[in-house]
Design brief:
By secondary structure, this protein is an alpha/beta fold. It has helices at residues 21-32, 61-72, 89-99, 124-133, 165-185, and strands spanning 7-13, 37-42, 75-79, 110-116, 140-141, 147-149. Helix 4 links the parallel strand 4 and strand 5.
Amino acid sequence: MPADRSLLVAGIAGSLRRGSFNRGLLRAAVESAPGGMTIETLEIRDLPLYDADLDVDGGPEPVRAFKAGILAADGLFIATPEYNYSLPGVLKNALDWASRAPERALHDKPVAIVGASPGRWGTVRSQLALRQMLMFPACRVLPAPMLAIPEARGHFDEDGNLTDSATRTQLVGVLEAFATWIRQVS
């Protein structure tokens, strides 16, 4: 891929809550994307639970639109919370839909994972679980840097906006590394 080609990245927040830290983290990524990268957010709220009976002709319309957004992108940026030491079920469900034939939208897709949590460990365990899950569709997950924000209440305002400048600097570093990663593995 030419170094001067603009990158389109699809972004997903793994939480349905409108004021979630991870939606705020995704918004901050959209705002902080380096030159030559555009992040377009995809919504997972309207995706039905995966059901093989619905998996006909690419699935229901929200599923087809979700897969098309991933397919059109050069990479996938995921901001995940941590629920019970793992990734949220709604995120797993969305990625299950995206991995299905015939499109296999996740196959060979470069992916970056970040996350924020009110707990002391950030989202280390959910990010590891997500990395394991993404092995099956052969995603190319950015190995480093990792961004798992612990005690997120101190990094975001009441509206879920990232306010901590040091964390934003780390996020920019992840996005810059992701741009390089996409170009290396694509």
